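Researcher: Good morning. I'm working through a list of sequences from a screen, and I'd like to move beyond sequence-only analysis. For each chain I'm collecting a predicted structure so we can compare shapes side by side. This is the next one on the list. No need for commentary yet; just the structure.
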Amino acid sequence: MTTTASRRIGGLPFAEIIAEEAMNDRRPRKRGRVKRALVLSALVILGVVFTYPFIWLVSASFKPRGEVFDNALIPRTFTLENYVAVWQEAPLALWLINTVLVTVLAATTVTISSAMVAWGFSYFRFRGRDMLFGVVLATMMLPGAVTMIPTFLIWSGLGATGTLVPLWAGNLFGSAFYIFLLRQFFLSLPRDLFEAARIDGANNWIIFTRIAAPLCKPALIITLLFEAQAAWTDLMRGLIYLRDSSTFTVPRGLKSLVDQYGFGGEWHWEIIITASVITTVPMIILFFVGQRHFVDSAATSGLKG
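Model: Good morning. Structure tokens for this chain:
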């Protein structure tokens, strides 16, 4: 009697209750696996959609001229002649050097200048600070076309047209977007930390360079990467200021190749495609090198409060 009663709970056999609870535990796990599978499937599909154009570009660069647009991802006739010809048909090495120079100067100057301005807006308290910061943000509302002609006249008056200077020197004065981004990170830092450093004898420059900037390293690297990508792919300023092929950057050089081998002359799309692959690879490498800092930046921003 006792044994039989102990095996029954609420009139149900104990084994049935255990089985029912096990079934209930399996259902959420099963739903979780289905949900995870659906998410992974969606990510795979989106990944294929976004990477297909680049895969097609790489594949086309290894095809002869007659097979470039056959849409086959695996070349029927594999050739490396395009990668040999592109260096002979255009001064691609010189264009890459010019682009690297402009990219490094533009990214470095805008990161340093924007960080200094953002630090001033976040740390120092003075009359009219919020209004002045609003004016800085308001400059983002101006379309580039509005300031294009005045900016050109300024550089023309300085005798800088035809050189690489206009492509990066404007970054010496910072960028409103990067100032806003970095200011938010500086504001998330505890002010007591800076006051303690000041009590220990640190001046404003030491506080900025040795405490604030290192703590905002992810944001600084993100600013550097964003501007590097923008400078590397900047075609508009190259079209406005560069005339001699010896000063061309990669985007401006590719435009000249399109004019020479595309719409304006004999169609040599395999040369243009191969040059595009060569100039795209550095940005892909830069992204993979810096992707960890994108995660760190997002995690740091999530801790603000």
